[in-house]
């Protein structure tokens, strides 16, 4: 029974405190005055009566009523019913205003009313929630007051405060307050179910289904929820409704349905809440960032961006929504029916309300079913201690991934749920019944909405019945105030009177006395055992399928285990990989644990070594895939097994399996241990009582009847049932028995704690106690683990004492290991013992025991560790030795490692084929390479050898990793090594490799990767035994060169003077010491010229002999040979000699004084003296002034290169020449000299010297260009478009050129911003220049092309003013700086060689490739190069002057030469190009390649690789233009970073001379095996094998290439992606050859078995075999066959090149026949190829001219070569081949032939046969019968003819030709003139062949 009302309060407006804007309320009276003992008076009621604040109003308002809810400190809720009415009072502000006359603040227009109204509230405080009853009672009191009824108010209030009603139980009570009223109160049957009236239905009407579901999920997952409404009662109802649908969970955070405005800051509390606020305060709620706002009046729910609400798991969400819509809108289903039923009205609100609640009850039934099977009961007496095992619950429901359920189970509400509903013996309610008996029904019906609906209706009925137990309610009779007409008339209303408290108190005391005398009401509480419901069955995944794991896999697991225990090891080994794969599935893991358990039970736990190894392997694999939430399953079942299986190591020493399975996260997870501990404790306590009760059977049988079908066939009671039984009996036991039981339970828990301390030490102490496992795991051992469970008492347990978290990563000694393990176990013990009520003495005892347990275990482990070291190792594959180069030595011998697969899928078998990786083998570190050699782990490919290697110099990144291999039990330390040759070695050291050895390996690797000096690199140390870098003391014949290069450098240093050597930038000596310089120069000068002019001003021609030799070497250098080839001048200093040569070779830099990074000899304009050069050089970065590097032989335009200008030089450079002041400053004079220099270059161009003046292009076009005027005009706009794109102009015109030649269009890359469209516009101008050159228009200059274009960097060219009369023009472009290249390359490597496989769509190969922007960079370089080529080809010179002149400049300049000059596309030319532009002009190979310690920080920047990639792109587009193959480019790309050769070491010629490596190649080699230069090596190799040769090489003369540079035209270079695991990189040719010979030698012994026919087929694996070797292209194959035939026949082998040249020579004539200019080159290519093939003796049928045969050429290996003198005659050639076919058609087609005299012209099919040397003709093409033959031996000449009578009409004159033989003249006519020309050429070539 409970009081209906605890307090009655009258609250009024406080007139005394009304200062300021807001009034205040105060309590006028309260009854009773004294607080009840059981229920103190709540504070702050006056705030809640007027939540918007106390205010006076000008007009009376209607009385209002609402209920606020206050929560006291014990989280008890108090319901405050507030009834407010307004009372009139005289305006307190009027008299004040009159006194002060008119206040200045007063607004004169505002009239104050004479009377105002103040609010007064009657408040009733109760712990019961009977809203309607409260409304009626307070209304009655008001009515009594207003209508002045005869009943005294004191009586009514006294009766109200003494009214007592039952809390629950479904009784009906009639009450009266003594004013002629009568009310009936119904109490709910079960007070655990919330009472909702119709509030839930209202909430759904206001907000809608989806919104309420959002709020529901938000409340369960602990978000903050705020309701807004202008009605207070609606706020209270909405909050009540939300709590009602959360049943059976109870909301335990802040709950304030009506929050007063004064307390709004509560909304910024950090904890979750459900709060209601009046809409009046809406603006204050706007800045709340993490609060979900539900506006009840507007029907919206606003979820802030930062809040993520986890929704119900999927099928449930759908089902709930469907069910709700069927309740709320039953017509929806019928809406489309043709004959809708007459009425389908939704139920009344009260019923609807219960139906909605039933839906949520059904939902919780779905969510929580089976929860009781995951409760662990730890103690039964004195009161139950229960713990929920969350992991098991989620795991068995297969919902471990579900966000929503995880959060709900972690929440406070669920903790309360467990503590309330956990105990097994308590009263039950509707929810318990649902969980126990209706789960099956729910599961069966969930897919049929109508059955669900029926179920919901049944539940709703029960809920309704609970609230309204009595259907017929007696009449209410309550007085309402009379609505009198003068209701608003203030005169009528008296003030609410002061009540007489004595009277009221008397009522109360009287009632209290009565209660004391009354007998106590004893209500028997119906306690009973809580049924558990059906257990959680098989895992059912979200779609309701049982996760079946194919029976076959389980079979494999079982068989394997049987084999292991039967000792059939070979069988087991075969099954092992399949088992390890199967163990990825959960069913297989469970199966494994069950099988192993069987064997333990059969006492077969002691194993031999190999059995032990396999069992441990399987256990590891099983544990490895366990997620942290899976721990309830597999790890738990394995825990007893790992302490059972063992092997004997020696006398009395046993190693248990746990020492090998420690490397798993689950063992360091505190929650796992807690769960395990509790489940064991539960089992023991159950056993305790089962033994204790002799009458065990009887209990069991009773338990069975009680629990009904749920306990089904279980013979024994489950622990919860047992606990329930014990709780029932507890009150009947005597005190002694009770304390005995408590003690027994406590000691059970204690003994388990000791047991677990042991178990934990087993799994946490590593076998090798020097390695600390807990510390390595990111300090897991010290992070306070959050328990994953709830415990009914002392949840906080020991969470407060947090352990010291400072342990970090110190060097772990064994004591450390012990300490951290002891700490971990102590924490565990504290937590579980506190939770399960172990006494303090026992706890202390445990704490003293634990260190001893750990210490003892460490001692036993030491012995085991020692012994296990002595075990004979399991047979591991023997280490294979790598083949080394001559001069390559091992630095560290092989260390056993595992090569692990990275992100490339080919080798792992993911794309089909066998898994070659992971592989087991060894890693070798040599002076040159890092080599892994081993065999795959997969036994199916165990006999293959896997090799991966890269040069140590190409290592770009090394990173430590830790790896766990599926096969092995340990997590090994490993390394991930990345190389810029696009290789990745991901290795894990075998356990036999000591960790210090791995460290030594790393140190050695670093030493080799970054030597102190470049002389430490392999190219220098090769072949020097003992790794010494000391030179041998033997006297060299080549000594003079060494000394002279030393002298040269010394003298250079002397010349420069100390200050310049130490500084980075070399500027020439100043004027003061110029004279001393001069005299030194006199001695060192060298003048070499073809005609030495004695009268010239040569400085001196005397020179010391050693230096003379140096200079002759300089002259012999590549540059000089090339300059002379290009006709760019001779070596002479003469200024007086003939001026016809525009350029000269200057020796100004021969001592490297002007520019350190330039070569010694440079091409400069003839007219510029050396002194000027020295001055000019200062304006350029690094002193790299403009020099000529190439000249176009046709247009005589030159290509210059330089660095960018220094900032100060730029503006001066563009000053207009006529603006010079009288006294030029130093800067001015320099800029003038620069102008002079430019002018000198322009003057050298023949186009400039034209008499017609420099203004027209037309002039020199006609004289100097082979193309005609018109074509040039057509071309002009194109260049402009090109230029615009390169500079980033607005229009985007893909340029295609009218003139012949190979051309690809260019598109501006989107990155270049528009800069100077002016230049492009002028170039693209459509008007042709004036032919006479007169300046007729002001614009004409703007429309002419400049003579010199300077390609400069946009960023440097700011501020330069373009002069309209200048003859040069600047093209500003954006270049990629070195940083961009570096970053792009890093990303490219990661894309091509990813370190780990990923399935993310954002990490696919093409996406990563795009993000690397490598292709964009190539596009940009190619684009600029093509522009320059175009400009040079149209006769303008170009100066490339970008950055420091040694990166991008070098790329562009070399590409331009390669595209423009066919010579550079041959072997010699390409070598020369690289030597000249890259080596001599000082590209910083050592710096960019980070080859030494000094350049380590700058990182690897592959500028040269980018150039090679560009060449590769061009090669792909023009395969017939290059003499070398793609392999040649890959070879260079590999070796320019490998440091095997000295060619690409050091940063400039100066540095090479200083080290004495520049000219030594000419001297005698100490070791013929060791090649110093990559070029010599290539030459040698090229003689032996056609590997570098391109068979398709058939260049066109003077061909300029114009490749496409669109990104879509660029291909990823296969150098980046291919690999050959069988032999490693194929770029060290000797290694590959020796490897192949060894392999062949191994294969030979298997031959004798000739009985079975050996298959000729073999499988080629893409990433394993070298495809080009296994499947060579046809030509290579034939050449190889020839070689082997020669060897068999004992003939001296002929060089492949000679063979090839012979064949080509034979083909030359035929190729000529078909090589018409109009031919498509692809046809030409194919027809050429077909001939090459045929001349090998293979007949290929051909159809006409364009026979096209596709040769599968894997490597683009092929080309023609120069014609050989003395070709064999055709007849001898013919006699070599016995043609199987009578027809040999070399050339055929239709010709008209004039018949004999007076006969007409007839078309005939003519066939020219070179082999038989005759011209035959047929009636038609199909005709087999030959009509006639002309023997070519008799032909005298072939000449163009003239048409005679009767000739065919409409055929041009040039189509006729005559063939004159010794007998007669034949007249022929072809279809058109080109055809005729072709026939004549073909016949002519046959004649000349003969």
Describe the structure.
By secondary structure, the protein is an alpha+beta fold. 40% of the residues lie in helices and 13% in strands. The chain is built from 60 helices and 42 strands. The strands form eleven sheets. Strands 25-24-23-22-28-27-26 form a seven-stranded antiparallel sheet, with helices on one face. A hairpin with a 5-residue loop joins β4 and β5 (77-90). α47 (1448-1460) runs antiparallel to α48. It is elongated and about 155 Å long. The termini are far apart. About 19% of the residues have low confidence.
Strand order of the largest sheet: 25-24-23-22-28-27-26
Assign a percent range to the helix content. Answer: 25-40%
Q: What shape does the CA trace take? A: elongated
Class by SSE composition: alpha+beta
- Tell me how many strands there are: 42
pLDDT average, as an integer? 75
Major sheet attributes: 7 strands, antiparallel
Q: In terms of topology, how is this protein built?
A:
Blueprint: E1 2-3, E2 7-13, E3 25-31, H1 45-49, E4 64-71, E5 77-90, H2 94-99, E6 115-126, H3 131-146, H4 153-162, E7 164-165, E8 172-175, E9 183-186, H5 199-207, H6 209-220, E10 224-229, H7 232-245, E11 254-256, E12 273-278, E13 291-295, E14 300-302, H8 314-328, H9 331-334, H10 349-368, E15 375-379, E16 385-388, H11 390-396, H12 403-410, H13 412-421, E17 425-426, H14 430-437, H15 439-445, H16 449-467, H17 501-517, E18 528-529, H18 551-565, H19 569-582, H20 586-601, E19 606-607, H21 609-624, H22 634-642, E20 646-650, E21 653-656, H23 670-692, H24 696-707, H25 719-729, H26 735-764, H27 773-776, H28 814-835, H29 840-870, E22 890-899, E23 919-926, E24 929-936, E25 946-951, E26 955-964, E27 971-979, E28 983-989, H30 995-1009, H31 1018-1021, H32 1039-1056, H33 1058-1062, H34 1074-1084, H35 1105-1116, H36 1118-1126, E29 1143-1146, E30 1162-1165, H37 1170-1176, E31 1187-1191, E32 1198-1202, H38 1207-1213, H39 1226-1243, H40 1246-1249, H41 1257-1264, H42 1269-1287, H43 1317-1323, E33 1348-1353, E34 1368-1373, H44 1378-1392, H45 1405-1412, H46 1414-1433, ...
Parallel strand pairs: 10-12, 10-13, 11-12, 19-20, 32-35, 33-34, 33-35
Antiparallel strand pairs: 1-7, 2-3, 2-6, 4-5, 5-6, 8-9, 13-14, 15-16, 17-18, 20-21, 22-23, 22-28, 23-24, 24-25, 26-27, 27-28, 29-30, 31-32, 36-37, 36-42, 37-38, 38-39, 40-41, 41-42
Helix pairs in contact: 3-4, 4-17, 5-6, 5-7, 5-10, 8-10, 10-16, 18-19, 18-20, 19-21, 20-22, 23-26, 26-28, 26-29, 28-29, 32-35, 32-52, 42-43, 42-46, 44-45, 46-47, 46-50, 47-48, 47-50, 50-51, 57-58, 57-60
């Amino acid at each position: 029974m409970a009081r209906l009302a605890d307090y009655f309060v009258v609250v009024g407006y406080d007139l005394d405190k009304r200062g300021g804007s807001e009034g205040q309320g105060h309590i006028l009276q309260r009854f009773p005055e004294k607080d009840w003992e059981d229920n103190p008076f709540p504070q702050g009621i006056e705030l809640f009566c007027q939540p918007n604040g106390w205010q006076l109003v000008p007009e009376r308002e209607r009385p209002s009523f609402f209920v606020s809810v206050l929560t006291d400190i014990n989280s008890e809720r108090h319901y405050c019913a507030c009834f407010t009415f307004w009372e009139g009072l005289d305006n307190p502000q009027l008299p004040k205003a009159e006194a002060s006359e008119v206040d200045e603040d007063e607004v004169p227009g505002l009239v104050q009313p004479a009377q105002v109204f103040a609010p007064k509230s009657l408040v009733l405080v109760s712990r019961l929630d009977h809203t309607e009853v409260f409304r009626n009672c307070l209304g009655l009191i008001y009515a009594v007051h207003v209508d002045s009824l005869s009943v005294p108010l004191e009586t009514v209030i006294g009766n109200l405060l003494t009214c007592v009603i039952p809390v629950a139980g479904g009784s009906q009570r009639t009450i009266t307050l003594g004013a002629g009223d009568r009310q009936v109160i119904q109490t709910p049957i079960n007070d655990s179910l919330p009472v909702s009236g119709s509030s839930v239905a209202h909430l759904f009407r206001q907000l809608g289904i989806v919104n309420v579901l959002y709020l529901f999920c938000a409340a369960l997952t602990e978000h903050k929820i705020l309701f807004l409404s202008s009605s207070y009662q609606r706020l209270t109802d909405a909050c009540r409704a939300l709590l009602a649908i959360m049943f059976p969970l109870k909301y335990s955070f802040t709950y304030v349905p009506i929050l007063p405005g004064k307390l709004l800051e509560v909304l910024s509390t950090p904890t979750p809440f459900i709060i209601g606020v009046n809409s009046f305060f809406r603006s204050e709620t706007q800045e709340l960032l993490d609060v979900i706002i539900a506006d009840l009046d507007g029907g919206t729910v606003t979820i802030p961006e930062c809040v993520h609400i986890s929704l119900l798991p999927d099928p449930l969400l759908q089902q709930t929504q469907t069910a709700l819509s069927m309740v709320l809108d039953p017509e929806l289903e019928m809406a489309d029916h043709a004959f809708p039923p007459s009425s389908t009205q939704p139920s009344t609100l009260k019923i609807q309300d219960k139906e909605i609640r039933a839906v949520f009850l059904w939902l919780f039934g779905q969510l929580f079913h089976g929860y009781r099977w995951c409760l662990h009961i730890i103690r039964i007496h004195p009161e139950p201690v229960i713990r929920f095992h969350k992991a098991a619950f989620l795991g068995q429901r297969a919902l471990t991934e579900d966000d929503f359920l995880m959060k709900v189970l972690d929440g406070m509400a669920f903790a309360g749920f467990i503590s309330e509903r956990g105990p097994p013996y308590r009263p039950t309610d509707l929810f318990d019944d649902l969980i126990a008996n209706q789960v099956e029904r729910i599961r069966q019906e969930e897919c049929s909405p109508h059955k669900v609906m029926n179920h919901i209706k049944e539940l709703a009925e029960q809920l309704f019945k609970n609230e309204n137990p009595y259907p017929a309610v007696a009449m209410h009779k309550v007085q309402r105030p009379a609505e009198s007409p003068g209701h608003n008339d203030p005169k009528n209303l008296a003030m609410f009177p002061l009540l007489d408290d004595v009277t009221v108190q008397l009522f109360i005391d009287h009632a209290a006395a009565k209660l004391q005398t009354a007998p106590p009401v004893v209500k028997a509480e119906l306690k009973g055992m809580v049924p558990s419901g059906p257990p959680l069955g098989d895992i059912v995944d979200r779609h309701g399928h049982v996760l079946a794991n194919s029976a076959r896999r389980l079979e494999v697991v079982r068989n394997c285990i049987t084999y292991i225990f039967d000792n059939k090891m070979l069988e087991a080994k075969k099954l092992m990989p399949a088992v390890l794969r199967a163990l990825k599935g959960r069913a297989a893991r469970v199966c494994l644990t069950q099988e192993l358990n069987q064997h333990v039970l059969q006492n077969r736990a002691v194993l031999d070594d190999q059995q032990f190894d396999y069992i441990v392997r399987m256990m590891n694999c099983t544990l490895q895939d366990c997620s942290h939430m899976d721990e309830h399953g597999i790890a738990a079942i394995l825990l007893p097994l790992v302490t059972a299986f063992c092997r004997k190591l020696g006398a009395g020493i046993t190693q248990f399996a746990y020492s090998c399975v420690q490397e798993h996260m689950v063992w360091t997870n505190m929650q796992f241990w807690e769960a395990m501990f509790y489940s064991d404790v539960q089992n023991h306590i159950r056993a305790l009582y089962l033994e204790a009760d002799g009458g065990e059977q009887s209990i069991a049988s009773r338990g069975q009847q009680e629990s009904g079908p749920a306990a089904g066939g279980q013979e024994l009671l489950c622990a919860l049932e047992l606990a329930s039984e014990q709780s029932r009996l507890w009150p009947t036991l005597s005190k002694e028995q009770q304390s005995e039981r408590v003690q027994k339970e406590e000691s059970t828990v204690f003994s388990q704690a000791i047991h677990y301390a042991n178990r934990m030490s087993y799994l946490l102490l590593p076998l090798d106690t020097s390695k600390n496992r807990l510390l390595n795991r990111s300090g897991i051992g010290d992070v306070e683990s959050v328990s994953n469970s709830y415990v009914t008492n002392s949840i906080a347990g020991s969470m407060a004492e947090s352990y010291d978290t400072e342990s970090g990563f110190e060097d772990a000694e064994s004591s450390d290991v012990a300490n951290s393990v002891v700490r971990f176990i102590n924490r565990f013990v504290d937590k579980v013992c506190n939770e399960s009520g172990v006494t303090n003495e026992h706890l202390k005892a445990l704490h003293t025991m634990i260190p001893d347990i750990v210490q003892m275990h460490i001692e036993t482990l030491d012995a085991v560790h020692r012994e296990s070291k002595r075990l004979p190792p399991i047979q591991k594959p023997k280490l294979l030795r790598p083949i080394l180069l001559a001069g390559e030595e091992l630095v560290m011998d092989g260390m056993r490692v595992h090569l692990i697969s990275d992100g490339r899928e080919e080798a792992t078998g993911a794309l089909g084929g066998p898994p070659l990786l992971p592989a087991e083998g060894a890693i070798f570190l040599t002076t040159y390479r890092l080599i892994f050699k081993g065999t795959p782990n997969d036994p199916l490919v165990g006999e293959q050898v896997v090799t991966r290697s890269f040069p140590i110099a190409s290592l770009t990144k090394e990173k430590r990793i830790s790896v766990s291999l599926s096969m092995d039990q340990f997590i090994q330390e490993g390394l991930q090594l990345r190389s810029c040759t696009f290789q990745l070695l991901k290795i894990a050291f075998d356990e036999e490799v000591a960790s210090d050895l791995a460290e030594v390996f790393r140190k050695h690797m670093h030493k080799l990767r970054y030597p102190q000096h470049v002389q430490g690199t392999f190219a220098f140390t090769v072949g020097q035994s003992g790794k010494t870098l000391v030179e041998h003391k033997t006297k060299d014949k080549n000594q003079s060169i060494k000394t002279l290069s030393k002298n040269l450098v010394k003298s250079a240093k002397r010349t420069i003077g100390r200050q310049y050597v130490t500084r980075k930038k070399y500027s020439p000596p100043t004027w003061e010491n110029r004279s001393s310089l001069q005299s030194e120069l006199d001695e060192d000068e060298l003048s070499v010229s073809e005609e030495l002019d004695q009268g010239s001003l040569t400085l001196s021609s005397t020179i010391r002999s050693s230096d003379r030799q140096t200079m002759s070497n300089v002259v012999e250098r590549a540059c000089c040979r090339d300059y002379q080839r290009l006709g760019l001048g001779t070596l002479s200093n003469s200024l007086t000699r003939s001026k016809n040569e525009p350029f000269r070779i200057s020796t100004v830099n021969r001592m490297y004084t002007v520019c350190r990074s330039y070569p010694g000899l440079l091409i400069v304009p003839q007219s510029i003296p050396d002194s000027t050069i020295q001055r000019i050089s200062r304006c350029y970065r690094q002193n790299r002034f403009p020099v000529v590097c190439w000249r176009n032989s046709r247009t005589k335009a030159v290509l210059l290169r330089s660095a960018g200008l220094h900032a100060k030089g730029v503006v001066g450079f563009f000053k207009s020449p006529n603006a010079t002041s009288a006294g030029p400053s130093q800067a001015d004079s320099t800029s003038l000299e620069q102008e002079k220099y430019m002018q000198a270059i322009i003057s050298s161009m023949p186009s400039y010297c034209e008499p017609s003046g420099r203004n027209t292009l037309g002039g020199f076009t006609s004289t100097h260009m082979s193309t005609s005027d018109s074509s040039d005009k057509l071309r002009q706009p194109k260049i402009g478009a090109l230029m615009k794109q390169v500079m980033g102009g607005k229009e985007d015109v893909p340029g295609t050129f009218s003139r012949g030649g190979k051309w690809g269009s260019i598109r501006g890359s989107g990155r270049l911003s528009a800069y100077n469209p002016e230049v492009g516009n002028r170039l693209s101008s459509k008007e042709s220049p004036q032919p006479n050159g007169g300046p007729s228009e002001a614009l004409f200059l703007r429309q002419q092309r400049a003579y010199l274009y300077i390609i400069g960097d946009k960023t440097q060219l700011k501020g330069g003013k373009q002069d309209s009369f200048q003859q040069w023009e600047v093209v500003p472009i954006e270049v990629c700086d070195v940083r961009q290249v570096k970053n792009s390359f890093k990303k490219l490597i990661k894309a091509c060689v990813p370190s780990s496989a990923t399935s993310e769509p954002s990490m696919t190969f093409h996406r990563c490739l795009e993000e690397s922007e490598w292709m964009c960079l190539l596009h940009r370089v190619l684009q600029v190069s093509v522009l320059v080529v175009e400009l040079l080809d149209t006769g303008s010179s170009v100066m490339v002057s970008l950055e420091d002149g040694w990166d991008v400049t070098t790329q562009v300049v070399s590409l331009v030469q390669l595209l423009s000059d066919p010579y550079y596309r041959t072997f010699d030319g390409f070598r020369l190009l690289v030597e000249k532009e890259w080596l001599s002009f000082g590209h910083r190979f050592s710096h960019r390649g980070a080859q030494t310690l000094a350049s380590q920080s700058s990182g690897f920047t592959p500028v040269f690789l980018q150039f090679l990639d560009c060449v590769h792109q061009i090669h792909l587009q023009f395969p017939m233009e290059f003499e070398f193959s793609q392999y040649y480019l890959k070879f260079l790309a590999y070796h320019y970073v490998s440091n095997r050769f000295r060619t690409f070491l050091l940063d400039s010629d100066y540095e090479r001379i200083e080290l004495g490596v520049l000219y030594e190649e000419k001297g005698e080699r100490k070791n013929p095996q060791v090649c110093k230069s990559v070029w010599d090596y290539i030459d040698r190799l090229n003689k032996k094998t056609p590997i570098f040769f391109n068979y398709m090489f058939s260049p066109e003369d003077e061909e300029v290439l114009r490749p496409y540079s669109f990104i879509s035209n660029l291909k990823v270079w296969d150098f980046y992606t291919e690999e050959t695991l069988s032999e490693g990189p194929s770029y060290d040719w000797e290694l590959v050859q020796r490897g192949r010979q060894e392999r062949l030698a191994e294969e030979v012994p298997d031959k004798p078995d000739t009985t079975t026919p050996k298959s000729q087929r073999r499988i080629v694996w893409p990433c394993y075999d070298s495809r080009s070797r296994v499947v060579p292209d046809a030509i290579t194959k034939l050449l190889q066959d020839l070689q082997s035939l020669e060897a068999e026949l004992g003939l001296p082998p002929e060089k492949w090149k000679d063979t090839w040249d012979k064949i080509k020579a034979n083909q030359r004539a035929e190729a000529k026949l078909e090589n018409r200019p109009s031919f498509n080159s692809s046809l030409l290519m194919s027809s050429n190829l077909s001939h090459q093939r045929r001349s090998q003796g293979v007949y290929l049928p051909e159809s006409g001219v364009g026979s096209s045969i596709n040769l599968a050429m894997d490597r683009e290996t092929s080309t023609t070569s120069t014609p050989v003198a003395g070709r064999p005659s055709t007849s001898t050639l013919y006699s070599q081949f016995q043609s199987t076919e009578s027809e040999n058609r070399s050339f055929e087609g239709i010709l008209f032939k004039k018949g004999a005299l007076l006969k007409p012209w007839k078309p005939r099919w003519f066939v020219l046969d070179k082999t038989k040397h005759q011209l035959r003709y047929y009636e038609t093409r199909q005709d087999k019968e030959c009509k006639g033959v002309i023997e070519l031996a008799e032909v005298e000449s072939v000449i163009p003819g003239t048409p005679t009578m009767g000739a065919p009409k409409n055929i041009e004159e040039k189509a006729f030709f005559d063939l004159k033989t010794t007998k007669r003249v034949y007249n022929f006519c072809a279809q058109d003139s080109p055809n005729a020309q072709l026939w004549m050429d073909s016949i002519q070539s046959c004649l000349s062949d003969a």
